[in-house]
TrEMBL record, chain A:
Main location: membrane
Membrane topology: Multi-pass membrane protein
GO terms for MF: branched-chain amino acid transmembrane transporter activity
Descriptive protein name: Branched-chain amino acid ABC transporter permease
InterPro entries in UniProt: ABC_transp_permease (IPR001851), LivM-like (IPR043428)
Spans traversing the lipid bilayer: 45-63, 94-116, 123-144, 202-221, 248-268, 288-310
Annotated compartments: Cell membrane
UniProt cross-references to Pfam families, sorted A to Z: BPD_transp_2 (PF02653)
Taxonomic superkingdom: Bacteria
Keywords: Cell membrane, Membrane, Transmembrane, Transmembrane helix
Entry GO terms, CC: plasma membrane
PANTHER family registered for this protein in UniProt: ABC TRANSPORTER ATP-BINDING PROTEIN, HIGH-AFFINITY BRANCHED-CHAIN AMINO ACID TRANSPORT SYSTEM PERMEASE
Organism: Pseudooceanicola sediminis
UniProtKB/TrEMBL annotation, chain B:
Record-annotated Leucine-binding protein domain positions: 43-403
Stated family: Belongs to the leucine-binding protein family.
SUPFAM superfamilies tied to this protein: Periplasmic binding protein-like I
Official protein name in the record: Branched-chain amino acid ABC transporter substrate-binding protein
Protein origin, superkingdom: Bacteria
Provenance organism: Pseudooceanicola sediminis
Length: 400, 447
């Protein structure tokens, strides 16, 4: 089916089910319970899960297949966001033209940067991309202020021209982003006893695009083109000696993954029409590297898991404050309570980076294949040693 | 993968079980409320969105302290603070409209993106009915736009750009803090008195909305005195070393340096300027002077010795003698052991003002609250008589002109008050060119 079969089809099916049922899966705790703190099933975060999932899937096409580590991928995300917001300002609030433009612009930008950076490989390539991204970031802050609005960020205003649409909505506000009239921010809440599940149009739009991106990524992984990229990863010198020019292949991979980043940037702007230069900062580029490695570089589903993992920490752990901690440990004796809170508060709230760093360290040390390897190991444990034959195929999977 | 599958399986069976039990109540009460996040239980949730990391983290920490104090006082705990001196007596220390005040906090990281994500999660997940905070105008403008779209009230914290209540003003957004125009209007007469009316100024300006409007305001006000403006150089917000920007000042013929910088930027640029010996210099037969239009105690602490004698403006200072200030400083000092900063005062006041407006409106509906706040006159919150102007949702009150103390007795007395500029002198027309180009639009209750 769809030109893919076997495990890949199952994987796509699993991702589809996970994406479509996310509002349920991510909201396991009743609204009023103490555990509601850990619910992640609200539209903004779910959108971020899938958007950064797309970003990481695209990054993985470059890093996972060719082994070229780009440290400047956030630049394409930023460029995509700016293009989309400009489309909203000038053309219409429909998300389709905005997303198309952001993919195209990010692709062209990637072509330019890739053309220059791919003359080198290894650490020099990483440094070049990092330099380009940092340059874009600084340009957005200074010289390009008329286009990017600098530190304030590019936003919609009431006097935008918007050729195919209205500058001001009927209620006197700024019109909202939509898909042929279907408002992106509209959310239906379904009450289910003590549970509240939120279904957002924007989320499902992103989820569908994630599935499309994921499908394309599977096709690339299984294609002769993908095989060539993997050959580049394992030994580029040997390929060159056989008389093959590898650069067109790596450049194509770079542009494709840049377009994925542009798509993610365009989607971010479609969900929330604002673009800021900090999206291009090197920390943002580093984040997608973390996502991919944490989830499992070179695997199909790994980057999506990694993106979800990091965004969950950023949004859920950063919001636990000492007040919440005191509630949790409230039943303990005063001294013990204060002691525990003192220790714990360094790992939550603004200290969430610390928790993430520790987890990242543990994962990289004990599960070099990322979360996917963890999943495989657990799977093997459950199935036991009776099916030793399967082990080999399961083991080889993360290395792909 | 199997980990996920079992998890899903577990949830699925749980959901099926739940469905059987909850069948009669399914699909009920869907979007029946009249506005976003209408509080239904015994509590009402406020969202405190402050920078907990990044260049303004110190300000953010102080803002959070003030918010916690305000919540305590609203719920009738502690000594009541400025509730006792507030001219409106609608609040009774029993929460807001009888509902206990709860709060959630978030980290803006001083980034528009992160701030909006954090505010969104407060609105979508925690059901916050009001968002407040912010220590940067860029962030404040971004979050204000979000609150307008989502249909909740935004009570701005520390934001000084003209744009927040100028071209980017929103019907759902309200600002208690003063702005760049007011700083300039208050500073100009003092500058004339101290340095005369024949000066040449050189501006270094942080390159974002606040810096731009700050520089524009100061330039206009000083040129009205007869000063000339030699040059205006924009500096990136991320800059930490300003030597290369200071060196050209020496030979520019300017005799005043205006630093439109805030926080760490200002600490660094002032230090660089002093290191270059600008303050000992004589230009055009006059002493070279440095002016820092927006000041704070936290910045004075960072700049140390260099701040002595430097003139600037403030929204509020804990050394004021009115009874509101006294009450606030007392309860803040009792709880935390040191006096509050101006960021803390504005955030505390904003929380009380919001709660009071809800109480007077008799509803949490943002439109009703907005109506109660617009044109509201009050006193007793530390700034003297204050008006929340209906045209742009900006507070009008006295502005302080301050100076770095020559001989501070301790680290809490680094700044001394030179003059309290009366409100009439800093009031402007809502259609003033520096504020034109925006519109409040309609209030949005969401839902």
């Amino acid at each position: 089916m769809l030109g893919i079969k076997g495990k890949d089809l199952t994987l796509l099916g699993v991702v589809a089910v996970l994406a479509l049922c996310a509002p349920f899966i991510l909201n396991p705790f009743p609204q009023d319970s103490a555990m509601a703190q850990f619910n992640a099933g609200y539209p903004d975060l779910m959108q971020r899960f899938v958007i950064f999932g797309i970003f990481a899937v695209g990054f993985n096409i470059l890093f996972g297949l060719t082994g070229y580590l780009s440290f400047g991928h956030a630049a394409f995300l930023g460029v995509g966001s700016y293009s989309a917001v400009w489309m909203f300002k000038l053309l219409s609030m429909n998300v389709i033209p905005a997303i198309i433009l952001s993919v195209i612009v990010a692709g062209l930008f990637a072509l330019l940067i890739g053309f220059i950076s791919l003359r080198r490989s290894g650490i020099y390539f990483s440094i070049l991309t990092l330099a380009f991204a940092q340059m874009s970031f600084n340009l957005a802050y200074s010289v390009l202020t008329p286009i990017t609005n600098g530190e304030t960020g590019l936003q919609l205003s009431l006097d935008d021209p918007r050729v195919l649409g209205t500058s001001v909505s009927d209620t006197g506000g700024i019109p909202v982003t939509n898909l042929f009239g279907l408002e992106m921010r509209e959310t239906t809440t379904m009450y289910f006893g003590d549970w509240a599940f939120q279904f957002s149009n924007g989320y499902y739009f992103c989820a569908v695009l994630l599935l499309v991106s994921f499908y394309i990524s599977i096709r690339i992984f299984r294609s002769p083109f993908g095989l060539m990229l993997r050959a580049v990863k394992s030994n580029q010198t040997r390929l060159n000696y056989t008389g093959l020019n590898t650069r067109p292949y790596t450049l194509a991979a770079f542009v494709i993954s840049g377009m994925y980043a542009g798509l993610a940037g365009g989607l971010l702007a479609s969900m929330d029409p604002l673009a800021g230069a900090e999206r291009m900062q090197w920390t943002a580029s580093g984040e997608v590297v973390l996502m991919t490695i944490l989830g499992g570089a070179g695997t199909l589903i790994g980057p999506v898991l990694g993106a979800g993992f990091i965004k969950y920490f950023e949004n859920i752990f950063s919001k636990i404050n000492d007040n919440v901690l005191h509630q949790w440990f409230g039943g303990l004796p005063e001294g013990l309570e204060n002691g525990l809170v003192w220790v714990a508060e360094h790992f939550v709230g603004s200290g969430w980076h610390l928790t993430l760093g520790l987890l990242f360290m543990l994962v990289v040390t004990f599960l070099p294949g990322g979360l996917v390897e963890g999943g495989t190991r657990i799977g093997r444990l459950i199935r036991g040693k009776t099916r030793r034959a399967d082990e080999k195929s399961a083991q080889s999977k993360p290395a792909e | 993968m199997s980990k996920l599958l079992t998890r899903r399986g577990l949830l699925k069976s749980g959901a099926v079980g739940g469905a059987g039990l909850a069948l009669p109540t399914i699909f009920t009460a869907s979007s029946a409320s009249a506005f976003t996040n209408e509080p239904t239980g015994g509590t009402v949730t406020l969202g405190f969105n402050v920078p907990q990391s990044g260049p303004y983290a110190d300000e953010g920490a102080d803002e959070l302290r003030a918010y916690e104090l305000a919540v305590e006082h609203l719920n009738g705990e502690g000594d009541g603070g400025m509730l006792n001196t507030f001219s409106s007596k609608a609040l009774g220390g029993n929460g807001i409209m009888g509902k206990k005040v709860a709060y959630v906090t978030g980290d803006t990281q001083t980034k528009s993106d992160a701030a909006r994500a954090s505010a969104k999660s407060m609105i979508e997940k925690d059901g916050a009915i009001m968002i407040t905070g912010g220590s940067s105008s860029g962030v404040a403008v971004a979050v204000q736009g979000l609150c307008q779209e989502a249909g909740v009230i935004f009570m701005a914290g520390l934001t000084h750009s003209n744009d927040t209540t100028g071209k980017d003003k929103k019907a759902n957004g309200f600002r208690h803090f003063f702005n760049a125009y007011m700083s300039a209007a208050a500073l100009a007469p003092v500058l004339e008195k101290l340095y005369g009316s024949d000066r040449a100024a050189y501006h270094l300006t942080a390159d974002y909305t606040w810096g731009w409007t700050q520089q524009e305001s100061i330039q206009a006000a000083t040129e009205a005195l007869g000063w000339t403006t030699v040059n205006n150089v924009l500096t990136p917000l991320a800059a930490t070393d300003f030597s290369s920007y200071i060196a050209p000042v020496l030979n520019s013929g300017a005799d005043v340096l205006v630093l439109n910088h805030y926080g760490g930027n200002m600490v660094n640029s002032l230090t660089n300027a002093v290191q270059f010996g600008l303050r000992e210099k004589q230009v055009n037969g006059k002493n070279f002077e440095i002016v820092v239009p927006l000041y704070s105690e936290l910045m004075a602490k960072g700049a140390g010795q260099n701040i002595k004698g430097i003139v600037g403006s403030q929204n509020w200072d804990w050394k004021l003698s009115d009874e509101g200030t006294a009450a606030f400083v007392k309860s803040f000092g009792t709880k935390y052991g040191f006096p509050p900063s101006q960021a803390a005062q504005t955030c505390y006041a904003q929380t009380l003002l919001y709660a009071d407006a809800v109480e007077r409106a008799g509803s949490f509906n943002p439109c009703a609250v907005g109506e109660a706040l617009a044109g509201f006159e009050f006193d007793g919150l530390g700034n003297g008589k204050t008006l929340y102007r209906a045209d742009d949702h900006q507070c009008f009150k006295d502005v302080l002109v301050v100076k770095g103390a020559e001989d501070p007795q301790d680290e809490f007395h680094l700044v001394e008050i030179v003059e309290v500029t009366p409100v009439d002198q800093v009031t402007y027309d809502p259609e003033h060119p520096m504020f034109a180009g925006g519109a409040l639009g309609e209030c949005n209750p969401g839902a």
